[in-house]
Sequence to fold (402 residues):
Amino acid sequence: MESVRREWKYFDVTVVVVLALLAVYACLAIHAATAGNHSANVPSHVMSKQIAYEVLGFVALFAGAWMDYRWLRKAHWWLWGISCFLLVAVFAFPATMGAHSWISFHSFSFQPSELAKVAIVVWLAKYMSDVEEAEIPDYRLRKQWIFLPIVLVPFALTFKEPALGQALVMIAIFLTMYSVFARRGPYAVLMFFVFAVIALGVMATTVFTKQTLAFVDLLMKHRILKGYQAYRILTWVDPNFSQDKYGYNIHMAQTAIGSGQLFGEGYGRGVLTSGGWVPNQWTDYIFSAIGEEFGFVGSALLVLLFLVLCHRLIRIAQTTSDPFGMYIAVGIVGMFAFQVFENIGADMYMSPSTGITLPFISYGGTSLLVNYFAVGVVLSVGLRRRRARLQTQFETSKGRLA
Fold:
């Protein structure tokens, strides 16, 4: 009991304060986006459900922190296998809004892709830490083929749902963790690939706009992309594309953000938000409600909270001596960072809209609970970093004596 008390002295209170502030942001934004919206798509009792999810989320947060994260190292295959099984099982349930993304029982629904993202983080952390802890670490590419099925199987199943945004998060998780793991040659290959993708994205939306539109149209004709996915990309490439139909959502979201200007219209006074003019504003486009009602200042404060959260989690990764815990923290940070950039960027035409929710802000149950638990696991790494450091020192001294 005494050792447990000593460990909890290292609990990062700043993370909890940031999450509490994000929870306030979420409740205010969701209430603003749904209070005057009489659409049938708005969930019933949306605010009472969101508050309940927030309470359960903090329970999941402290449960993840209390749990010894090293247990996940033993269960990495189980987590990955169960998540893949659920990703297959989801196709046996009716589609919701055109996607087989949820397993539903009466009023309960679960999104397996959220669990799959965490499962990928745990599996990659296990493998990468095993390599680093080996007596002679082997970073050769031919030893890393196992990464392909581990990432691509859940990616393909999620893409098939279709849930392009969630599938892209899985790739972002892998690239983030691999950028820390890779050495020399592999790292150079990875960086070349990342910069090539960024360069292609910039050129596609500036220099080769017509060619990009034709290529996306080709992908849609061959059914590689769903129609709505292709139209989202087309809207990103050409902001004037079909503003009255396919580009309506993102056009209205950007208009709402712009109308907020510096200090916002005021809470409950946003014309587009209170009038329900932005579709799905309580989920995918929640940032537009914040931008309209709280303006640039309120939006910048929200981004600052995300930066503080990521900084504290990165700090935990830097200060632990356990490679497994370090990679867990890196993967979770990569997951959050990509989702925040993609969600906010989509509202401002910086990236294509892919249906990714804004972590801790958008309405939802599964995503909120999984995100809170994921942060709790990183806090668990921070709580036990002193024990991990002492264990590392002991094993090092034992090896020298041998």
Q: What stands out?
A: Strands lie at 103-105, 108-110.
